[in-house]
Sequence to fold (349 residues):
Amino acid sequence: MNKMAPTNFPVYLDAFLNKYLPEERNCSENTFKSYCDTFSLLLQFIRDNEHINAERLTLEDFNHTLIERFLGYIEKERECSISTRNVRLAAIHSFFRYIQYEHPGFLLEWQKILGIPFKKVPHRIMNYLTSEGMRVLLSMPDQQLAIGRRDLALLSVMCSTGCRVQELCDLTPGSLRFAKPYLIKVIGKGNKARQVPLRDDLVILLKGYMDEHGLLAMSANRYPLFPNKHGNKLTRQAVTKILDKHIAVARIKRPELIPDVFSPHCLRHSVAMALLQTGVPLIYIRDLLGHVSIRTTEGYLRNESKQSREALEKAFQNIVPSLEEEKNPWERDRGVIAWLNGFKGSKSI
Fold:
């Protein structure tokens, strides 16, 4: 029995995912997974809507209208956000930028696909905790229990470093420097490393936690810093669950300090806002958080301006008299015409 020869699409997709991304672009594991998810969804969409199975799909089957229909499917049928739609489009753009050099025979069509624009994402106000709110959150884990001490160490790292959830999950004991100056090495997006200072009190807390779990030995340097019960590193979903548990209790105790909607990324916002409010320059906040562009960090400045305005409005309510209390001259008299006529009698020409 003759085997079916592979079409050109899977050959190029394999080279893109397994050679170009890791070897030439040095993409992170998360980027790789995101791209794989995108093409898995795209192949399913083509199978169900274009009735072309993946093993028969060729590059010639792709055009900009197909990609636009797929993006519409992502938004409408899967009910994904504009941000998710843009993430999927970014993966497709990256693939066809690669393809236009490897298979330029359909260059015009590839450029039409690359011309599909990203949608503007509505600006959302960032929820964050004040310093008092973070103190309340860190008082929630039960330090009499081993899991409570683990949660306290985990949340303390997030509240002190502003690291992303995946960055937290990827930490190992070898990421920590316990010689002065105390530092933690964080691997961010694009496998870019940055060093974040650690406070003395956090170092004491982490040393106690690591000693309890046998993580101070040199042989444990590559173990997960925050493992699950099986010894594997925590997932992003597990970290979210840990935070949700303690945020829920904190909200009951101090509802005025805890926003109604709060995610692990909000702790990152909390660190940024705390630094901004104490006068730390934006460029240092950018480096601490691992932002590629200062424009991303400037979003916290805009958020701070809005919070300041809301605080002022709340503090000075009912100070300025309303128009109902002090009517305009033409409203006190017989109307605007009578008011204007009054000037004629009172002034001579």
Remarks:
- The chain has two domains: 8-114, 131-313.
- The radius of gyration is 28 Å.
- The longest strand covers residues 183-187.
- The CA atoms of residues 131 and 274 lie 7 Å apart.
